[in-house]
């Protein structure tokens, strides 16, 4: 079990890590070693996450989520495969922690009397400025 938050822990078999070759410059070393890591996590099939966390995680993941509900993270920032593996896992855990936070419900409020008066005064002032731009003698 991999602890993510106090309430959420992932099972080891839920994460699929694959070493791939990193893109970009780097010469001979990059061309023959697989240091980048592709991490896959099946969000929709995970028994560790509640349905509301899955929904929020899907929204947070955006284009990193496949049609099948699999989250794909790619880490290639380091020259070490182990460092890239840790980076990919930490990014996944941060996404899950962010999705685990339930957003506060917005309580609708009415505008105050003072804010209504202020808005109407600014509208009247703006109308006056625009009226001064009009040609003299026009009463449209």
Question: How would you characterize the overall build of this protein?
Answer:
The protein is 41% helix and 16% strand. It is elongated, with a radius of gyration of 27 Å. It has a single domain (2-100), classed as 2-Layer Sandwich (Double Stranded RNA Binding Domain), CATH 3.30.160.20. The mean pLDDT is 87. It is built from 4 helices and 5 strands. The chain has a 3-stranded antiparallel β-sheet, covered by helices on one side. It has helices at residues 28-32, 51-61, 81-100, 113-133, and strands at residues 2-3, 9-10, 15-20, 36-42, 70-75. It is α+β, with helices and mostly antiparallel strands and 140 residues long. Helix 2 packs across helix 3.
Can I get a quick summary?
The protein has 140 residues and is of the alpha+beta class.
Keywords summarizing the entry:
5 strands; single chain; 140 residues; 16% strand; Double Stranded RNA Binding Domain; three-stranded antiparallel beta sheet; alpha+beta; elongated
Layout of SSEs?
Layout: E1 2-3, E2 9-10, E3 15-20, H1 28-32, E4 36-42, H2 51-61, E5 70-75, H3 81-100, H4 113-133
Antiparallel strand pairs: 1-2, 3-4, 4-5
Overall number of structural domains: 1
End-to-end CA span: 75 Å
Strand/helix succession? EEEHEHEHH
Report strand %: 15-25%
Number of strands: 5
Order of strands side by side in the largest beta sheet? 3-4-5
Main beta sheet: 3 strands, antiparallel
CATH architecture label: 2-Layer Sandwich
CATH topology: Double Stranded RNA Binding Domain
CATH class: Alpha Beta
Mean pLDDT: 87
Helix content: 40-55%
Counted by DSSP, the helix tally is 4
| Helix/strand/pairing category | alpha+beta
Outline the low-pLDDT stretches: none
């Amino acid at each position: 079990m991999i602890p993510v938050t106090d309430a959420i822990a992932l099972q080891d078999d839920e994460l699929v890590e694959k070493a791939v070759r990193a893109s970009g410059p780097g010469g001979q070393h990059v061309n023959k070693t697989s240091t980048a890591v592709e991490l896959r996590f099946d969000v929709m099939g995970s028994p560790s996450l509640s349905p509301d966390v899955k929904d929020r995680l899907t929204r947070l993941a955006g284009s990193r989520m496949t049609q099948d509900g699999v989250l794909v993270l790619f880490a290639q920032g380091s020259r070490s495969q182990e460092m890239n593996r840790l980076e990919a896992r930490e990014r996944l855990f941060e996404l899950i922690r962010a999705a685990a936070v339930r957003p506060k419900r917005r309580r609708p409020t009415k505008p105050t009397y003072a804010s209504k008066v202020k808005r109407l005064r600014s509208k009247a002032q703006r109308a006056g400025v625009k009226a001064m731009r009009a040609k003299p003698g026009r009463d449209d």
